[in-house]
Amino acid sequence: MTAPSGVLVVGASAAGLSTAEALRRKGYQGRLTVLGAEPHLPYDRPPLSKQVLAGAWDPERARLRPQAALSALEAEFLLADPAVGLDTETRTVHTASGRALRADAVVVATGLGPRTLAGQAGLAGVHTLRTLDDAVALRADLLASSRLVVVGDGVLGAEIAATARGMGLAVTMAGPRPAPLAGQLGPVVAGLLADLHTERGVRLRLGAGVSGLTGHHGRVTGVRLDSGEVLPADVVVVAVGADPATGWLAGSGLRVDNGLVCDSRCRAAEGIYAAGDVARWRHVTLDALIRLENRTNATEQATVVAANILGDDQPYRPVPYFWTDQFDARIHVHGTPSADAEVTVVDGDLAGRRFVAVYRRDGAITAVLGWNMPKQARLRRGQIGDALPDLAPAP
Amino acid sequence: MKINVDEAKCCGAGQCVLLAPEVFDQRDDDGVVILLEAEPSEHLHAAVREAAAVCPAAAIELSEST
């Protein structure tokens, strides 16, 4: 395939921006359009649950690139205009405002939408956190409140709980697993996280299902557990995972199944690609469809997509990586940990809360985790084998 | 090319070190980026641009004189 004369990137967050930047870095000089659903120029999402929510950063500081860098990209940013449809044959994207944008190559980078609880929509004081506007709204509500219940025991829920505790709120975390991140990191590390949260004053009500929300005069008053117990709350954050934002692809004829399904080159159809949280692609080594929700995947997959648009033929085979900051713990995870892996501390020690642990399954190293030892963990990244087991199970 | 790193933004991923070890390192104690060469020579520019682009915390800024 020769270089296209026009590329349209649908999504103006990390994956979309990275695709545009990688195209230019690799010498693409044609027309480049980035379509964003939100009104904001590209910003970073990891700080939303931490620095932005805490008020340590102005929202502006979460911008991914300064204006000069965006200008140098020579891309047209069309913002506040969500995609609503795709005509696969002609590669034409239709937008909410009525635009019809045709391109030789279309990159789907629309990310995720947060899941919600039944009854959430009609109640004030119940939040999800995905966008910058979500973070600003949640912060405003937290500043006027004293009791927060976080529904969700994953990375996002645990980070929000830690941040809100730091803001002085009484915080309760509710979720089905026995400890924060137990589903991803297993009992040893999740147990340490539970200790950390408890020491810092977060009340853990884990290992219990949430059956719904209670309210009074249109405002949330609590979270009801399966046991019938109600956890009182002024504000509730629902952090129970997210789904790929693929609703706009209905009728496109493309295969949507827990993400936009792609081949090993991240291609969904001739001239149509996907990058980031929304992309479910065939991992050549595993011979399985994989979808990753993490920040580095957005950028790395975008880089491969850009290369393939320009005529390369690269399979995408990343080493997954994510990090999370909670209180004074900075946790870095390379590879694919799993709850049932054998965990061995290879540097530092658990009691000192500064260590590197390796995760093994069937004798092979599947992940390396650093707790306040980022460099030392990264140095062991090369030990991770290619046999990534059970990647990206349901959160 | 001139590089600026924002230590407060750095998340310690070390992606920059993987891509351009002549230019970036990490502190042993907290993993925060160490800039070894603020004005790297030209043969390193491509790797540095890649490092800035993939930094998951957007902590590396480049100014390139034109």
From TrEMBL, chain A:
Cofactor (UniProt): FAD
Domain of life: Bacteria
Gene3D superfamilies membership: 3.30.390.30, FAD/NAD(P)-binding domain
Protein name: FAD-dependent oxidoreductase
InterPro entries with a match to the protein in the record: FAD-oxidoreductase/Apoptosis, FAD/NAD-bd_sf, FAD/NAD-binding_dom, FAD/NAD-linked_Rdtase_dimer_sf, Reductase_C
Organism, as annotated: Microtetraspora glauca
Signal peptide boundaries: none
Residue ranges of domain FAD/NAD(P)-binding in the record: 7-299
Sequence ranges assigned to domain Reductase C-terminal in this UniProt record: 321-384
Transmembrane segments: none
Record key words, sorted: FAD, Flavoprotein, Oxidoreductase
PANTHER family: APOPTOSIS-INDUCING FACTOR 1, RIESKE DOMAIN-CONTAINING PROTEIN-RELATED
Automatic annotation (TrEMBL), chain B:
Record's keyword annotation contains Transport: yes
Glycoprotein keyword on record: no
Cofactor(s) this protein requires: [3Fe-4S] cluster
Pfam families in the cross-refs: Fer4_13
Source organism, top-level taxon: Bacteria
InterPro entries in UniProt: 3Fe4S_ferredoxin, Fe-S_cluster_ET
Gene3D superfamilies (UniProt xref): 3.30.70.20
The entry's keywords: 3Fe-4S, Electron transport, Iron, Iron-sulfur, Metal-binding, Transport
Function of the molecule: Ferredoxins are iron-sulfur proteins that transfer electrons in a wide variety of metabolic reactions.
Protein name: Ferredoxin
Organism the protein comes from: Microtetraspora glauca
